Amino acid sequence: xxxxxxxxxxxxxxxxxxxxxxxxxxxxxxxxxxxxxxxxxxxxxxxxxxxxxxxxxxxxxxxxxxxxxxxxxxxxxxxxxxxxxxxxxxxxxxxxxxxxxxxxxxxxxxxxxxxxxxxxxxxxxxxxxxxxxxxxxxxxxxxxxxxxxxxxxxxxxxxxxxxxxxxxxxxxx
Length: 173
Prior knowledge:
This protein is an alpha+beta fold. The chain has a single domain, classed as 3-Layer(aba) Sandwich (Aminopeptidase), CATH 3.40.630.30. Helix content is 39%, strand content 26%. The protein has a seven-stranded mixed β-sheet.
């Protein structure tokens, strides 16, 4: 399996996977969000067939805040590690840009996604932590996350890695 940045050529496969993975509203926003996503990653098998995608957002500031916006895996490829590989690569990319925390929102009833994120060190947090950790900037970020009432907010703090050096952050920008 290979994880790479998405390109325009991946659009049809992303639309197909989004429609197979989400209800109509989520699929619409997943496809619509492609224009502004970073990181925007796809997982492909050895034959260059897209198995899944991840859309993220890096909220700039000090420190930057990472947000995994959408992760979707083709139903035929679930359970093969594509989702895990996509999230792990996004964590690496967020960290390379200086983020010390990454958030994700998952529907309360999406047990496979909850398990995936929790197995990668994400913990359930109250939405008010954005205010507690970031004050006014946190409220601004929360509004741009577009959290639905049925979603659980998860956070992953990078305590296992040293912070990115200023040189690494500037090279990654």
